[in-house]
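3.2 Worked example (two chains)
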Amino acid sequence: MSQATTLTPRPTAEPTDFQRRLVTHADAAVEWLARSIAACGGRGSAAYYSRWYRPARGWAPPYPETTGYIIETLIAHADFARRPELIELALSQADWIRTLQEDDGALPGGWIAGGRKPPPSIFNTGQMILGLVAAGDRSGDAACLESARRAASWLAGQVDSATGTWMAHSYVAGYSPAYYTRVAWPVLEVWRRTGDSALKSAAVRVLDTIAGWQQPNGAIRNWEFRPGQPAFTHTMAYTIRGFLESARLLGNEGDRFFDVALRAADAVRRRMELRGRLAGAYDAELRGRYWYTCLTGNCQFAIAWMKLGDRTRDARFLSAALKALEFVTRRQSLGAIDPNVRGAIAGSSPLWGRYLTLRYPNWAAKFFVDACHAAHARLQRLVEDGPCGS
């Protein structure tokens, strides 16, 4: 064959029935997220919906942290579902977040209720950076990147020189959790866009510290919300994802962080395969609490496993991811009597499980949509290329 010969492009294969289901479920979750923003007058997404905790109205006040990373989900779904109106909704939330920023760059923790702005938070600031970066990348608005830069600079300046992590402005006073890897990640996102080496140095210092907390069984110390308690899969996956995304941004320099993520995620995957599903939480010995499932964590682990499968080319990760995600799709109501439950994802299954008991948090819907997008894309590659690739 002549080198000048070109091949006819392969026609795009039809999606599978499961992919079509993913589209339906993701659309429903995005509609719910849009309602959570409308419930707050367009200024932030309600933290959760619960008639048990909020009998009069159902909706909690807006939560800046999770609104921040919902921005990137809305933008992604605008492209996924060809819904350009979601771009405007996403950018409006970035504008709102910028109004909350302190002069030193910090962003608040907690909810915005009664006009009260909570004190700064390390973790929450990081999550809002992700939204600001996504909004800036999409819109080209330099103000979003400048806001993200100021927030990242504040975070870099807060790294404790003695411990190599963040100690102040924490959820639990005096406790620096392993899931702060998910703060290092957004700091690195800003570094990649600005070239500010101080941001990279601060993020890598934190990542190296937390990488040193990995145990022989793959578990990572301090990845729970509170010291000594079992870790929800939510915070475990936060920790793993922070390492994975940081490794991606750092290139070869980040290989050591990828290896930490791989060991941790594979240890959990093996236990899921043995039991048939993820537990809601795991202790330091990776003994699971199987009487409930943290649905948010299922979605987050699905995303992490798919990313690991991409790099390792180990099909077991995609298999585990699809099982974890399918568990959640079967528990999303598309026809609930209460329209504000329709499309939502509960904190736990059963609903009275220990994680966000009797509540439908906005971040569960966010990670569910992200996982649906990721699964749809990888299944489409399999459909078009076959299981062994093209």
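3.2.1 Second chain
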Amino acid sequence: MHEHQHRIYVQTDRLFAVLMLCQWIAGIGAACWISPRTWIGTSSAIHIHVWAAILLGGALNLFPAFLALTQPGTVLTRHVIAAGQVLTSALLIHLTGGRIETHFHVFGSLAFLAAYRDWRVLVTATALVALDHFFRGVFWSQSVFGVLTASSWRWVEHAGWVIFEDIVLIRSCWQSQQEMREIAAQRATLEKEIEERSKVEEQLRNQAQKVAQGATRLTSATQEITTSLTQVMAAVTETAAAVTQTTATVEEVKQTAYVASQKARNVSAGVQQTAEVSQAGAKAVADVRTEMAHVQQQMQAIAESVGHLNEKSQAIQAIMDTVKDLAERSNLLAINAAIEAAKAGEQGKGFAVVAQEVRHLATQSKQATAQVRTLLTDIQQAAHSAVLVTKQGTQAVDVGLHEALKAGESIHLLSTQAQEAAQTMTQIDASSQQQLVGMDQAAQAMLNIKTSSQQNAVGLSQIEGTARNLRELGQSLAALVGLSTQDLRALRS
């Protein structure tokens, strides 16, 4: 209220500053128009009223106008303006020779002074008007009433009309102040409400901004979520396709592992048979080695026997040489005996027969010796051949024994490797069985992954729809927040 009242004071002061300048000029004009010059005989001069309008009017109007411009709104300025205004009215009444019409300037001045809405200004103006009318009515009635003589109570009449107007104006000022107080109270309440509403609007604006930011973040987040979900769905689709391919591959690997297991089982059986055959071959080679050793011993025995036979043949040949020698000697003796028997005649016939028989025996012995020698030669050659054959057989037996030994070692090594291969194939068979079990589990896991991927794809589709709805909700919320912000701004303006 005080600020509003002060603003009224300042505005009214400036109004009176303009009004007083206009009044001063108007007073000079009235003085120049009504009585510009005064005459004394044939000489004339500027009328005293003109100088009064210029000098006194300037003093009464310029000083209050100066205060109104330099110190607007102060109490002193208001009362100086009130005094200057009613004294200007008195000056104008004097310049017009106390015309009753000019007295209305007083009432107009009071009406203008009521614009201050301060009854004390009216009291100051009324007091000055009453004093002016009293003193000029007593001492210079023509100046104020336009007559040379006037009733000493006439000023009371004028003062009464002024007081009557003051009553109306003061009541108006009082009502105006009451209304101003009420308006000020209402305005204070309204300003408080406006301030509170501004705070609420500020809070709402902040909340709206936060909500808008949240809606924007929600829209961005849902957009990112939608993009991520699209990528995830594509990845899930690719995963499902990859799982399908992997399932087919696992099934193929399973079949391959099954075939490999069957082949490993067959190979294991073959390797087992090979190991058994290798063991049998090793046993046969051992038997061959034993037989070859026995044959070697027999060949050595045969060689020794042939050697002894050769020695015996040589001994027999020596004996046959002796027998041949004896036969030859016996033949010579028989020949000598026959010669002697021939010489003896009849006495020697029996001796000749004996000699003949001895000679015949010697010849047979010689022939038999020759035959025996031939046989011994054949026997020696056969023995020599047998010795050579025996040596060759012994060497062949040695070679065969060595080869049998090498074959035994090879077969033993082959048997060991076959047994190791059999164990390895057994392990491979067991691993193949485990691989089959693992492939079954992998196939089941791939089937579960495929089912989960399909379920995830369905769930991601639902989540993508929800994210799309959230994005639309965020956009709608942002639009509503924008409209609410515009409504708040419009309401505030």
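3.3 Remarks
Residues 2-195 form one domain.
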